């Protein structure tokens, strides 16, 4: 599976009803730093904010629905919690094909993402119910830093 050889954990997505109180709690309780402001991604029907521990390379992303029609409304209402894992990858199509051979199924076609400065993302799911998000790196050194 050469297409998955360069998977790098980018962030853990955590569903919440509203971002501000959770972000504040994680800053106070665990020492997270805010990496971005709250970003509205209309294509994903969500508000998102990224946090990071100073010495860590992976982010924590809080995701909240942007209204009643959001795909996150049910997840956030059920008490929130772990929503997805995100990996940065090389060419999306190559990685999608490799993960497909391993039983993953594409549930959202690649599209430009607001939170990643136009980098393409897509979503997959496998036998377990946890969705996987992929963010396409522009080159091998691209850390896909979130923000506008």
TrEMBL record:
PROSITE patterns: VOC. Pfam families: Glyoxalase_4 (PF13669). The keyword Metal-binding applies. The keyword Nucleotide-binding does not apply. Residues 8-137 form the VOC domain. InterPro entries: Glyas_Bleomycin-R_OHBP_Dase (IPR029068), MMCE/EMCE_epimerase (IPR051785), VOC_core (IPR037523). Keywords: Isomerase, Metal-binding. GO terms for biological process: L-methylmalonyl-CoA metabolic process. Its EC number is 5.1.99.1. One of its GO terms (molecular function) is metal ion binding. SUPFAM superfamilies: Glyoxalase/Bleomycin resistance protein/Dihydroxybiphenyl dioxygenase. PANTHER family: METHYLMALONYL-COA EPIMERASE (PTHR43048), METHYLMALONYL-COA EPIMERASE, MITOCHONDRIAL (PTHR43048:SF3). This is Methylmalonyl-CoA/ethylmalonyl-CoA epimerase. It comes from Silvibacterium bohemicum.
């Amino acid at each position: 599976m050469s297409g998955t050889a360069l998977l790098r954990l980018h962030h853990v997505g955590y569903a919440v009803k509203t971002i501000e109180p959770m972000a504040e709690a994680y800053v106070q309780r665990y020492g997270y730093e805010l990496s971005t402001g709250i970003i509205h991604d209309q294509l994903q029907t969500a508000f998102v904010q990224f946090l990071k521990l100073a010495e860590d390379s992976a982010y924590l992303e809080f995701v909240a629905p942007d209204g009643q029609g959001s795909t996150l409304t049910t997840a956030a209402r059920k008490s929130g919690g772990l929503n997805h894992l995100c990996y940065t990858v090389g060419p999306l199509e190559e990685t999608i094909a490799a993960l497909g051979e391993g039983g993953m199924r594409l549930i959202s076609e690649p599209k430009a993402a607001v939170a990643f400065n136009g980098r393409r993302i897509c979503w997959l799911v496998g036998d377990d119910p946890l969705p996987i998000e992929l963010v396409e790196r522009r080159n091998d050194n691209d850390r896909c830093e979130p923000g506008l």
